Amino acid sequence: MTVQLNDYSKIYDIAVIGGGINGAGIANDAAGRGLSVFLCEKDDLASHTSSASSKLIHGGLRYLEHKEFRLVREALAEREVLLAKAPHIIKPMRFIMPHRPHLRPAWLIRAGLFFYDHLGKREKLLGSNLIYFKEDSPLKPAITRGFEYSDCTVDDARLVVLNALQAKEKGAKVVTRTRCVKAYRQQELWHLELQSGAESYQIRAKALVNAAGPWVEEIISENLQLKSPYQIRLIQGSHIVVPKLYDCHKAFIMQNEDRRIVFAIPYLEQYTLIGTTDQEYLDDPQKVEITDVEIDYLLTVTNSHFKKQLTRTDIISQFSGVRALCDDESDNPSAVTRDYTLALQVEDKTTPLLSVFGGKITTYRKLAESALEQLGPFFTDMGEEWTANEVLPGAENWTTLEDLVIKIQNQVAGVTEQLATRWANAYGSRVWGILHERKALEQLGQHFGHGLFESEVQYLCENEWANTAEDILWRRTKLGLAFDEKQVKNLESYLTGRRQKDDAA
């Protein structure tokens, strides 16, 4: 069945292909400047690279070795900006680098950390220092000292969703599970042909932004029938999740013989997240999966540092993503630049096409500003930069996490501190859109398990584009590790019934 929808009557200023962090960030920035914006994502928001990260907002200490000073400076400054924009989903964390003299001398690490402390603006985060490990250290006895510094952790998928939500609230049209099958220039406008399930329709826009991540080059060559200005390198990064490896709330940055580093990061209170890898990927980005070689690599690096030894049986979960990096012809996948490149292609001084190559979560906001700067000459009435000083949804009227947890528990009888903390971390002040005036757990509707109630599911479906159990459990709430197969099926059954009611209406 083919259905012609009514969006063709409207001409958008900007159409964005891709609902990862770069696409959502650009759409949000543009909408906040008064431009009319359309964003389409072929799957769920953040369903690929943007939810397969190490969950860090960081300067990238190891990038200093590759002389990426501009990128590191920008990323270090962005830590403070993003921490203020979204304190509910972004948290400061201390990182410990055990010193292994045969890999990097102490003077080199000290020099790197000096630059790390001073390259970017740092007001909230503590500086670096030398530390000595005692007998109760989780590290092997041979590792006696190390270095400690600050970075931040982030709920990566929620960062994407909150940017999309803010864009929507500023007037953008955001659609998921909608594929752009073709786009072409005609009469000084872009014409996009879109497919959403059995429905197809067209929209028109003055400018097109290609933020399709691993598919950026494919969109240009196949969907637009144009020549890509750059080639991309697909670099696979994989992580494993194991039961909590140590008790402290600090992360470890582990050096390896191949000059790479691997993080061990506290994750969801009960687990440790270990990653990432760096290897060339040549297959379909939709099918990326962790390999045996990667699993062995992560286990080997971890076991060379910690007293507690891991085996494959300790792995609770794993995930992989593909980073689409601009090809700088480096022989080493770890050395390929993590900096972003924006390519602007124009025809007859109209219908600009801006394609995004590379980028990282930490610098998404600056990338968006750079994108709007390049598009600025085509929109002379566009507003000024605004994203540095306006908080993301949920950070409005923010005081402290502890204060919000207490307010939630005071209103809703029976809510545990653990549940209130999860809500506060995920939704911030938007939690009241879930709770409203409800006074007890029994008023939150059906309980699907592990503190997931019907009122939260409804909120996610109605406000955050959630559609399936996977959307809710793995990207919106991070409860996927807790749910068993029966509970997942029960939630999916509920969502199916909800969709059928919506279709009937």
Automatic annotation (TrEMBL):
Pfam families documented for this protein: DAO, DAO_C
Catalytic activity from the UniProt record: a quinone + sn-glycerol 3-phosphate = dihydroxyacetone phosphate + a quinol
SUPFAM superfamilies membership: FAD/NAD(P)-binding domain
GO MF, one example: glycerol-3-phosphate dehydrogenase (quinone) activity
Domain of life: Bacteria
Gene3D superfamilies: 6.10.250.1890, Alpha-glycerophosphate oxidase, cap domain, D-Amino Acid Oxidase, subunit A, domain 2, FAD/NAD(P)-binding domain
InterPro entries: DAO_C (IPR031656), DAO_C_sf (IPR038299), FAD-dep_OxRdtase (IPR006076), FAD/NAD-bd_sf (IPR036188), G3P_DH_FAD-dep (IPR000447)
Main enzyme class: oxidoreductase
EC number: 1.1.5.3
Named cofactor requirement(s): FAD
Nucleotide-binding in keyword set: no
Domain Alpha-glycerophosphate oxidase C-terminal: 387-482
Keywords: FAD, Flavoprotein, Oxidoreductase
Domain FAD dependent oxidoreductase: 13-332
Record-stated family: Belongs to the FAD-dependent glycerol-3-phosphate dehydrogenase family.
Name of the protein this chain belongs to: Glycerol-3-phosphate dehydrogenase
Name of the gene this protein is made from: glpD
